[in-house]
Design a protein that fits this description.
The protein is mainly alpha-helical. It contains eight helices and three strands, in the order ααβααβαβααα. Helix 5 links the parallel strand 2 and strand 3.
């Protein structure tokens, strides 16, 4: 309804929840990923799945400046002052107009996922955390 009111329906589609296969088809045709999540105490410390998915697909990210987004995306993202939609739009346009920068940021993101954020790397840290939490040492003969 809002996209129609703003005469953007040709460019914007709100799909609701879609199957993973359809999501991958959309991401394969995208030039960048947008993370417009507002800064809240929860969002500031939550890993946004979409940011990791964008990076895994080699897409640069435009995000509001959240602590966890900086931790996850690093140099694969452009960070915008929180709650500044005009700055978000300007950053999107600048990035869309700079293919080389988009490509470089996309490669940074893909490398971050491959080298440190993929489950093969994360699971070890998660198991170690739970072991410490419950007082288990893996070298124990239990």
């Amino acid at each position: 309804a809002l996209s129609k009111k703003l005469r953007l329906e040709e460019f914007v589609r709100f799909t609701g929840r879609i199957p993973d296969e359809e999501l991958m088809r959309y991401l394969c045709t995208a030039d960048l990923g947008i993370a417009p999540d507002p800064k809240t105490p929860l969002n500031d410390l939550s890993t946004m799945n979409k940011v990791i998915e964008y990076m895994a697909m080699g897409l640069p990210v435009v995000s509001f400046d959240l602590k966890e987004s900086r931790t996850s995306a690093g140099d694969a993202a452009v960070y915008i002052p929180n709650d500044d939609p005009r700055a978000m739009g300007e950053a999107i346009i600048q990035l869309l107009n700079n293919h080389e920068r988009r490509s470089a940021m996309g490669e940074v993101g893909r490398a971050r996922v491959r080298e440190s954020l993929a489950w093969d790397h994360s699971k070890r840290h998660l198991v170690e955390f739970y072991d410490r939490l419950i007082g288990v040492k893996r070298s124990d003969p239990r």
